[in-house]
């Protein structure tokens, strides 16, 4: 069995034959005003906004494609029955705010994205559901008022408290909006006048937040469990409202309650989870890279690693880069501004001798989120008892019991389990999933994914380093246990229908995506690591900024918002000549 990105896949795509935007590498210049390191979603957004604003921007990416932890890829594979097909895999299941009129859709449109190329996004019918062997079943709907009505019908004794909870969500949503979109009043006026000047200085920003964002201040130290405990007595209702915390890689007892509020708001009030109707998620990332280069004059350097950031007298001077090819010399890009959009620990900790001790200590102490063990599969559709409900949900959580939401790293697996089941082939039936070698859709095959919190990263990394056969055996054993559980409790006949599988662990993600401990959500999103306690977009070095999951929040919505925020800070400060 191969992992999600086999050594040959990486070698031929990243070293020998770079295919995506390979022509853009020829546009490398020795002098660039701004360098953005990391072409994940946050880096792409940040670089494109800066280029549109008129800056000369170079985007550096060590992989041969853009998209980072949200990338997708197509492979020719051989099925168990001997048939050779093309299969398209994505690391992403859902995105929010990409429907017309929603913020990210409008942002990408303003940057120049051609939606005819990308294709339309469509909402999932329902967000998620949880299924336990005992028959317990919870579902999360799309829509704010629809969800309120559903919960009040299921838990009539908590009706008043449900209204209070939804009022809190309304208040948080209003306070989260940028000043132009907030209700008129003194709070909006105060934020418009003072927020840009206070943002960099934590004490002033905290004082301003006390006045303009009181609900953020009140709830920012609560976990999701503490937040729902403050409103409800019914344990089943608390579980119901917390079931999608697992997508943050944390149990409700540790996940930031405020972050969870923002997640459900993005689903319930801002378009809900959506998926590309006819394309891969990679198409969106490729299109934004094309816009950066062709419309705004930026450059994208693929298969290129940022080796070092040059700092003189506490000011950025440029970045040394090297392409992943034999004999390629080190090159230097002069830059007055550098934005770190990749893993902050891997890029900034090597600069420890040029950074203040307290900053290095804080960055070193930041805990990484749990990663996932994920299995991508191709199955025979006719051998599975599928019905309409399987394509209704963005994700289905198959759990040993609702209390399994508290499992951290599958320590009691397989006795206790919490497995996320996704059906990309059903949720996005018109998108490319499995086709003939000449591109004709093969509807007899279906794409589906399984994910769960990964076993200990340290154990996997050490085992892979010291005993690769044992590492592969452990991964295969865990994957088959996941498949056995899903077959027994959710999808009979799964093993018989299975034609192809590939899997990756936290060790895989760190190796190929260069993310510390394979943490796909970056730093843990606990109350102690949620803004304002997360890393700042500003670093102590002048001209050196950061963006992405490390500065705001993990997940696609978090990194897009972070990329937009950092770009606006750079534009504002460069305009002042800082």
Low-confidence stretches: 1-31
Estimate the helix proportion, in percent.
25-40%
Strand order across the biggest sheet? 8-7-16-17-19-15-20
Largest sheet: 7 strands, mixed
Beta-strand content estimate: 15-25%
- Outline type: globular
Can you tell me the number of structural domains?
3
Q: Give the CA-CA distance, first to last residue.
A: 53 Å
Average pLDDT works out at: 88
- Please compute the radius of gyration using only Cα atoms: 23 Å
Query: How many strands?
Result: 21
Our count of helices gives: 21
Computed structural class: alpha+beta
Tags for this model:
single chain, 578 residues, alpha+beta, FAD/NAD(P)-binding domain, 3 domains, seven-stranded mixed β-sheet, five-stranded parallel β-sheet
Structure description:
It is a single chain. The protein is α+β, with helices and mostly antiparallel strands. It folds into three domains: 151 residues, 3-Layer(bba) Sandwich (FAD/NAD(P)-binding domain); 192 residues; 128 residues, no CATH class. Helix content is 38%, strand content 20%. It contains 21 helices and 21 strands. The strands form five sheets. The chain has a seven-stranded mixed sheet. Strand 1, helix 2 and strand 2 form a beta-alpha-beta unit. The protein is globular and about 65 Å long. The termini are far apart.
Summarize the structure.
This protein is of the alpha+beta class. It has three domains: 31-64 and 302-367 and 525-575, FAD/NAD(P)-binding domain (3-Layer(bba) Sandwich), CATH 3.50.50.60; 72-97 and 108-123 and 274-279 and 370-513; 143-270, no CATH class. The longest helix has 22 residues, at 468-489.
């Amino acid at each position: 069995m191969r992992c999600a990105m086999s050594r040959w896949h990486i070698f031929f795509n990243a070293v020998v034959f770079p295919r995506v935007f390979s022509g853009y590498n020829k546009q490398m210049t020795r002098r660039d005003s701004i360098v953005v390191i990391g072409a994940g979603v946050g880096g792409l957004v940040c670089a494109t906004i800066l280029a549109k604003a008129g800056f000369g921007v170079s985007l550096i990416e060590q992989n041969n494609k853009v998209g980072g932890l949200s990338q997708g890829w197509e492979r020719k594979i051989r099925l168990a029955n001997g048939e050779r097909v093309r299969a398209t895999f994505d690391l992403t299941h859902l995105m929010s705010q990409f429907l017309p009129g929603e913020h990210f859709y409008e942002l990408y449109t303003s940057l120049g994205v051609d939606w005819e190329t990308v294709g339309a996004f469509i909402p999932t019918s329902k967000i998620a559901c949880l299924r336990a062997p005992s028959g317990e079943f919870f579902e999360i709907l799309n829509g704010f008022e629809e969800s309120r009505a559903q919960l009040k019908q299921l838990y009539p004794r908590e009706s008043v408290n449900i209204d209070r909870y939804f009022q809190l969500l309304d208040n948080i949503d209003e306070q989260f909006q940028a000043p132009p979109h907030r209700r008129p009043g003194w709070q909006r006026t105060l934020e418009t006048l003072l927020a840009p000047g206070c943002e960099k200085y934590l004490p002033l920003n905290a004082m301003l937040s006390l006045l303009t964002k009181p609900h953020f201040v009140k709830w920012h130290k609560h976990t999701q469990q503490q937040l729902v405990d403050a409103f409800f007595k019914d344990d089943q209702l608390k579980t119901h409202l917390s079931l999608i915390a697992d997508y943050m890689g944390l149990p409700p007892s540790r996940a930031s309650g405020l972050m969870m509020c923002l997640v459900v708001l993005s689903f319930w009030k801002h378009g809900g989870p959506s998926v590309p109707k006819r394309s891969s998620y990679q198409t969106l990332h490729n299109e934004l890279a094309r816009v950066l280069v062709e419309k705004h004059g930026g450059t994208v350097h693929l298969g290129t690693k940022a080796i070092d950031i040059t700092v003189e007298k506490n000011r950025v001077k440029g970045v040394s880069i090297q392409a992943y090819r034999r004999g390629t010399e080190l090159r230097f890009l002069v830059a007055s501004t550098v934005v770190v959009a990749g893993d902050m620990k891997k890029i900034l900790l090597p600069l420890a001798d040029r950074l203040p001790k307290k900053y290095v200590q804080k960055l070193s102490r930041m805990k990484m989120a749990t990663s996932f063990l994920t299995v991508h599969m191709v199955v025979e559709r006719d051998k599975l008892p599928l019905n309409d409900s399987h394509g209704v949900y963005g994700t289905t959580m198959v759990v040993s019991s609702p209390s399994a939401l508290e499992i951290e790293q599958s320590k009691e697996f397989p006795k206790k389990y919490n497995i996320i089941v996704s059906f990309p082939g059903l949720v996005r039936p018109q998108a490319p999933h499995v086709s003939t070698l000449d591109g004709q859709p093969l509807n007899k095959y279906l794409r589906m994914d399984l994910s769960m919190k990964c076993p200990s990263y340290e154990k996997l990394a050490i085992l892979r380093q010291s005993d690769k056969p044992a590492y592969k055996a452990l991964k295969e054993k865990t994957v088959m246990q996941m498949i056995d559980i899903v077959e027994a409790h959710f999808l009979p006949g799964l093993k018989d229908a299975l034609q192809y599988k590939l899997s990756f662990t936290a060790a895989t993600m760190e190796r190929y995506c260069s993310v510390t401990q394979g943490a796909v959500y970056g730093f843990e999103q606990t109350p102690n690591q949620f803004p304002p306690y997360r890393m700042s977009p500003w670093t102590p070095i002048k001209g050196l900024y950061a963006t992405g999951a490390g500065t705001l929040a993990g997940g696609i919505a978090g990194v897009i918002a972070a990329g937009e925020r950092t770009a606006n800070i750079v534009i504002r400060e460069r305009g002042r000549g800082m």
